[in-house]
Amino acid sequence: QPVVAVVGRPNVGKSTLVNRIIGRRQAVVEDVPGVTRDRVPYDAQWNGRAFTVVDTGGWEPDAKDRAAAIAAQAETAVVTADVVLFVVDAMVGSTDVDEAAVKMLRRSAKPVILVANKADNTSIEMEAVSLWSLGLGEPFPVSALHGRGSGDLLDAILAALPEAPAIVENRPRGPRRVALVGRPNVGKSSLLNRFSGEERAVVDSVAGTTVDPVDSLVDIGGQTWQLVDTAGLRKRVGKASGTEYYASLRTAGAIEAAEVAVVLLDSSEPISEQDQRILTMVTEAGRALVIAFNKWDLVDADRRYYLDKEIDRELRRIPWAIRLNLSAMTGRAVDKLAPALNKALASWETRVPTAQLNQWLTALVQATPHPVRGGRAPRILFATQAGVAPPRFVLFTTGPLDAGYQRFVERKLREEFGYEGSPIEISVRPRK
Ligand code: GDP
């Protein structure tokens, strides 16, 4: 989601403008001179485009050098935002204090929109024309308080935003796509047979040809699922025709085509390298994941505790995967599969509102700041969720984060918001 940052001296009406843009009144703290506000992001929408507005706030109440403070604020905005709104008071114009920021904004490659606020009437609107002299392009006269000119401003913001990414969220309605994968002999066909009573072909084979339907619709737990590459399961490609290489291509194809994968493991054997490779395929493809330990009927009761420890160790890189102990042969826990798939998919498509995400993040970095390295510690300025399926987050920071700290943030993010059964991606955008 693109980010729009609002920059300007105290008292020019930044908070009122942010309220106007997000269409709410209460949320934003009053713009009182000398009151420090943190960068607070809000979700906004205009003409069907969603973006994040960041109120870059004020600065230290007793900052000695106000010009330097506003320049720093502008610089942060420039590195973290896609579009910068530079707000001045239309009646006052630009002051000396603004100068360093204006210079910086003029040099930056980021689109800057000059907002002449408090243009409550036509005569002030006319005055605003003189702001062309700042060299920041066309001034947009706006009355944030009364709404005058805000439509034109929002149109200008949309025009300056980067191209909208393809929206994958409005997936076509229909059965969810699930891949059933695992090395030969773990029991894929046996498990499939548990559901085969309701099986129907998605694509009927054309009469007179030998073309197999690739996927089929199966009933799992009273719900219809599209099981991808059922033909591959039926023909036992891995065993009959082939090389491990071919089977692995087929597995990768099925995972790619699916939204959620069930990786079947054989509980009566140690987790093998091939099992691990299949798990990696799923996480690298960013698909939701359910791990089913099949043949649980073969596991002695007294071995289970030990086995669980061993499994925890083997799967420590994916502690978030949903695990089931089942038996295709006896039918044990097979009814747990559908709820597990639904849970994993729900996590996969979770979206956390920006405000909620940042409230949590602010508390987290306050409680546990980044460790100091060489006298400095990078700060996380704010975060947005860039997408779902799987959930993807961008952290805007003052510098690169330690790998360990980034893992800590991910772990805490999971603790807070769940994501059971889904990978999540976190990327860091440090300012240069
Ligand atoms: P695939 O290659 O993954 O499709 O595996 P199959 O479904 O062909 O199963 C391989 C072997 O494991 C067969 O002999 C099955 O009868 C056996 N098998 C499958 N599931 C179970 C199970 O839950 N318990 C036990 N004891 N054997 C199973």
UniProtKB/TrEMBL annotation:
SMART domains: AAA. The keyword GTP-binding applies. SUPFAM superfamilies: P-loop containing nucleoside triphosphate hydrolases. GO terms for biological process: ribosome biogenesis. Associates with the 50S ribosomal subunit. Belongs to the TRAFAC class TrmE-Era-EngA-EngB-Septin-like GTPase superfamily. EngA (Der) GTPase family. This is GTPase Der.
